[in-house]
Amino acid sequence: MDAAQAVMETWYPGQSGGEALAKLLDGEANPSGRLPVTVYRSVKDLPEFTDYSMAHRTYRYYDGEVAYGFGFGLSYTRFAYSGPQLSAYRLPAGQTLRVSATVKNVGQREGDEVAELYLIPPAMAGAPRLSLQGVRRVHLRAGESKRVEFILQPRQLSLVNPEGKRALHPGSYRIFVGGAQPGELKLAGVAFEITGEKPLNP
């Protein structure tokens, strides 16, 4: 493996996996999948299994460098995001939030892009550093742009405290829309504030 230029791990491709991989390698199909897991650099980066907390586990709580992050994916073209907008920048607790952004295929060939929406909540006990709250797949020809929209329900904006109580909490939040986690994309995101507090059912 040290002499190989690339290694492909296919996990469970199914009976048509060979044909699908051949089309990807030949360029007949354009890949657009996203990793549903985090690929860490080493098991030494993870806490001991005697530690049952979520600290430093999964993309939601792990803040170190990884080999491949949750949500990572490749394409034979490139996409750019612009114009993120929110329906409200001061949101009363309990209301929905609309988020939209423009995605453009800035490469030379058509392909599917998977737009990911991440929410960064204010720092509080038990809160994740970020969480995926929306996914939109969009097919774009070379040079084409489209607007993608997400609707976040109150539950998606809520947090669970260490006592297991779910609620909407006041504070400053941040929204990111892109083809990967915000740290990988160097995105600034869009800030908004939730005003008031509202308990929700578990």
The name CATH uses for the topology is Immunoglobulin-like
Note the run of SSEs as H and E: HHEEEEEEEEEHEE
Instruction: Give the end-to-end Cα distance, rounded to a whole number of Å.
Output: 48 Å
Strand content: 25-35%
Which segments are poorly predicted (pLDDT under 50) over 5 or more consecutive residues?
A: none
From the helix content, strand content and strand pairing, which structural class follows?
mainly beta
Looking at the structure, what is the overall shape?
Answer: globular
Explain how this protein is built.
- This protein has helices at 17-26, 58-61, 182-185; strands at residues 79-86, 90-92, 97-105, 111-120, 131-140, 145-152, 159-160, 166-168, 171-178, 190-195, 198-199.
- It has 202 residues and is mostly beta strands.
- It has a single domain, classed as Immunoglobulins (Immunoglobulin-like, Sandwich).
- The strands form three sheets. Strands 2-10-9-4-5 form a five-stranded mixed beta sheet, with no helix packed on it. It has a three-stranded antiparallel beta sheet with strand order 1-3-6, with no helix packed on it.
- The protein is globular, with a radius of gyration of 19 Å.
- The mean pLDDT is 92.
Question: Keywords, please?
Answer:
globular; 9% helix; mainly beta; Immunoglobulin-like
Secondary structure: elements and pairs:
Blueprint: H1 17-26, H2 58-61, E1 79-86, E2 90-92, E3 97-105, E4 111-120, E5 131-140, E6 145-152, E7 159-160, E8 166-168, E9 171-178, H3 182-185, E10 190-195, E11 198-199
Task: Characterize this entry briefly.
Helices cover 9% and strands 34% of the residues. By secondary structure, it is mostly beta strands.
